[in-house]
Amino acid sequence: MSASSTSPLIRNAWYAAATSAEVGRTLLGRHLLGTPVVLYRTEAGEPVALLDACAHRQFPLSRSALVGDDIRCGYHGFTFASSGECVHIPSSPRIPRDARVRRFPLVERHDMLWLWPGDPALADPSRIPDCPWLDGSAKVSYYAHLRAHYQLLIENLLDFSHVPYVHHDQQGHPELARVIPRAREHGDTVVSTRVMRESSTPPLWSDVMGLPLGASMDHDQRFEFRAPSAVCIRQAVWASQDPGQRYPFSTTHFMTPDGCGATHYWSWVSLEWEGVDPATLERMDRGAREVADQDVVALEAQQALHDRLRDGAVAHGVVSVPFDAGSLLTRQVLVRMAKRERETAPEPRSAAS
Asked: CA 45, CA 47: separation in Å to the nearest integer?
């Protein structure tokens, strides 16, 4: 079975909704886990996330007007405060009790806005992925609205055996497909680690770190999937003959399903050694964007084929190999989280007889 047909959506979790810079005094509409959300900041700078549907006739509030801290619906003028409460109806002196829209828990951290789409009583900010290296200045970022299921992206990020083939012109070296990581679970986190010795320096690391192209290089990696929506990869490379001069860096990835078959994908590369200059950062930005674009092309092609095969065009099967252990663990974690969420959900209210 393919990842996209088996991986559930978890609602009681924090998801990246937007970067801090994206959200200001202009209404921003975004679909997150099948829910339309409108994001903006109050005049005091507080970020707000409301259901992007007027309580009257479900007109998109993101296509309406921001008046002070309130949103005035662009269809009939219903006005909603940042709390979600309706505070004015031009055509009615009385405001119905149910005239309100949902406000979602929203927390700003690491230059991101994190939204909790599930039960607000369970929204514990300590469960937001902690990535303190993102607070540094030597980093580059990337965003794509990826036309693929988020589980395909998770598995791509935990399986670097694709790198010598998809990214052969940038960061591929042979050991990435030879040295099998050791994968294990820690609660709702999957950790995978490995060290690769005496591989050849690929073009991107030569360009950014200054190591001679093709020279002997060592490379260690620690992957962490922090379910359900973050992958953090801590890495370091160094010349095999000079282990004292290490070049540590991190790649951080947040993926939020839009609920319509696509994924909002943000990634950062943080360079963590001393003396990173603007020219080095520019080279990293250029290379990282090319690598991410290559992944997007591959994943969208993979998703398109999954969709055709799922429609029954041909009989097919999917095999796994030892390198896939970390990816398979992420599926198990997501299924377990979904089961736990179902079991703890409140019983639906029965209709009055």
From this structure: 6
